[in-house]
Design brief:
- The structure is a single chain.
- This protein is α+β, with helices and mostly antiparallel strands.
- The chain has one domain (3-21, 46-129, 179-345).
- The protein is 32% helix and 28% strand.
- It has helices spanning 48-65, 73-76, 99-102, 106-111, 137-142, 198-209, 213-238, 278-292, 309-313, 329-345, and strands at residues 3-15, 19-23, 26-29, 31-36, 39-44, 113-115, 120-122, 126-128, 132-133, 144-153, 167-186, 252-263, 298-303, 321-326.
- Strands 1, 2, 3, 8, 9, 10, 11, 12, 13 and 14 form a ten-stranded mixed beta sheet that branches. It has a two-stranded antiparallel ribbon with strand order 4-5. A two-stranded antiparallel ribbon has the order 6-7.
- Helix 6 crosses helix 7.
- It is globular and about 60 Å long.
- Keywords: Antiviral defense, Coiled coil.
- Residues 195-229 form a coiled coil.
- Pfam families: DevR.
- One of its GO terms (biological process) is defense response to virus.
Amino acid sequence: MVFIKISGRFQAQVSTLTGSGSIGNYNTHALAQVVQNGKVYEVPVLTGNSFKHWHSYYLASVYQDMGGTMLNDLSKAGIGLRGYTVDSTFSNLIPPNSESEAILDLCNDIHGFLIPNTQIKRDSLVKFSFAIPILDDVNLETASRFAVTHNRVVPPNVKEAGQGSQMMVFKQEYSTASYGFSVSVNLAWVLKPLFEEEEKLLEAYKGYLEKEKNEIEKELINEKKLRIKSAVLALLNLISGFGSKQARALPIERIEEIIVVISNRQIPNAVNGAYPDYFNKSIDQIKAFTLNVRNTSTDVYCYGIKAQSDEAEKNDIKSSFKINTVNDLSTMFDNLLKRIDELLKTKGG
């Protein structure tokens, strides 16, 4: 089984991480209130829902690039409207009759769905926190939200007779700050129904592929591996490409530091990167769980956290809890994918 917890920090300059609506010609940035040392700050944020949307978008893209085909037209187009069968098209949206039928579609499987009329639902396997400015007095004081004036030309077909070209002026809010975030990825339930017997999944898969049961079981194993790797690689795209209003302001973003924890058990979440001591606190609670729950094996990969490099040298080769420091994201994700392959080969993987 594969469980992944992520926490980290990024810097964003002049970006609209999440839009929150408009007042006339004024488009606003999402805001939230945080408390630090007894003082309330109103700060720009990236919502967990927005984070989740962008992961779903990149998930579908990576999955197709790796040869995946089991997703409907909505998923292929990056439209976050889930709850339709894998063979649904724009002109023929088909509601599923069961959870097993629904999760044949990639995005239904990983990101969940709810169909109120038939009470069919699935919880998301990928969960995101808000990204909020790092909880440091200086950073909270300097986190900025401001408006920039834009304009667009009014098309000729809406001009009044005798008038020349017009400009429509509007204002868009942007933000600049250093942010912390956290992610929980439960990949143990990929292509497994949460509320039905697995036999129903085999039946649904057989009906879709029109193959024999022994062939279906092999296909399921390969499809599961493909979906898990796609979900992880989508995170790499995600941490360098999120935010709204990208046509006018491609986000100026950079990952500062990140920890990725992978385990064969449902370990505690990593402490959000917004906290100054998030690394030490994350290590403390996840290590405590790993060493006290039998047959738990956990690996931690750290990028950009140089102050903790000595911890990696203390690892015992036989230890069930290992900390690995890496100098680049390529090495981090290469190691992560190798560890996923190892976990998938174990019993129950």
